[in-house]
Amino acid sequence: MEQLRRQQQHFLVVTYPAQGHINPSQHLARRLARSTGARVTFSTAVSAHRRMFPSLSSPDQEFSDGLLSYIPYSDGSDDGIKRSSSNNNKDAAADNPMLRLKQVGTRTLSAVLDRLSARDERVTCVVYTILLPWVADVARAHGVPAVLCWIQPATVLAIYYHYFHGYDGVVAAAAAAHASDPAHTVTLPGLAPLRIRDLPSFLATTSEDDPYAAVLDDFRETFDAIERGDDGADAAGGKTTVLVNTFDALEPNALKSVEDLNLIAVGPVIPSLAALEGGAAESKDLFAPDEKHYMEWLDGKAEGSVVYVSFGSMSMVKKRQMEEMRKGLKESGRPYLWVVRKDNKEAESIEPEEPDQKGMVVEWCSQVRVLNHAAVGCFVTHCGWNSTVESVAAGVPTVCVPQWTDQGTNAWLMAEEWGMGVRGEINGEGLLEGEELRRCLEVVMGEGERGAEIRRRAQMWKDKAREAIGDGGSSQRNLRAFVNQIANRN
């Protein structure tokens, strides 16, 4: 009976049009469909949808791959080009892409829900990701429960939650003390003491004019949206449900530290185990990598010998930092695969290596395939959460070089809490020097006791991650229980 009720559910997964949001959302959508038998429709903005499916006859055309249906909404920038500011400043949305996204998205996502209902495909639950709090209001206006999927670690969710619930002054005091005492820590309920560098960067804002202040407001709106609804509360002891891209064994304390929310660990939200083992890419990418070229290059390298370097789909690396990184990679004497995106304006200083050199520079790659290749022995990462959980699930040790947002917290988790990497120390100019990178690589990949322990713990976390998403694992059980919870409400 429970299985039948699950199969009668229709989930609409709505996400922000950026690669770092699309990847986990797609993997969650596939997991929902595969493990519960529910109908699942995936929706992101037209600007991303058209890049995911470039062969469609029109940018907003619907698509089905046999498991998921794809129906985009418009965010007001269907061509992906940011609109210029209004000369007379009468249109506030022209200067604020997030406001435009909310205004246009509210209308167009509502139309998607109406269209599905008219086809007798009524949505029974909307799952949405961060930066889209207005989606919850659209869903509830249609009488549909909305559940947030938090695509950062549970630790970061807990930090933000406590910050917005009375601990903002504690964090502000710690930030003020940081200048004279970098080791000063802040203690939040249920969490280990954290230094300012370990907190999300948006919490270090000291002025309303700080560009990060607006992003912090977006996160505040996300928590306001959670608390406006009672979605899932009936089956969760009166608590609002939030899905989290983590697993029970990875962040047990953080998952229990927010007593007013029902945090459900459903991660790591990555490709299925079958896809990981077969080297297949399941998600639609906004970039188009030449996989044959670099995978064949990796095939020719010794096991655990290659340094993989990538700072994700959004971080921009300055020219001086690139020069220092190249210096460190060369001095390490190890082969390396380095992702330098074409849209990084400083990338012109980094040219592909000659065929007889140790390194390969590519514009993009299938990161999951690379991390699961036997030749890769270390990941130099910006510590975005997708990269973090992908390295955990692949058992690849890390050199952590966090840039902004949640990445400092993620670096703390990997290097200090989980013991599967080291954090590179930056100099007074905010640069990771080449010598420091070389030192970190030697620690992680060398013959010393610390490196051996890091590699052992990386393998341990890999085993735990795959157990969690395997048949009967904790995240698999949690996801099915969540779907049953929604089914019992409908």
TrEMBL record:
Keywords: Glycosyltransferase, Transferase. Its EC number is 2.4.1.-. InterPro entries: UDP_glucos_trans, UDP_glycos_trans_CS. Pfam families: UDPGT (PF00201). One of its GO terms (molecular function) is quercetin 3-O-glucosyltransferase activity. It is an enzyme of class 2 (transferase). Signal peptide: none annotated. Belongs to the UDP-glycosyltransferase family. This is Glycosyltransferase. The gene is LOC109716868.
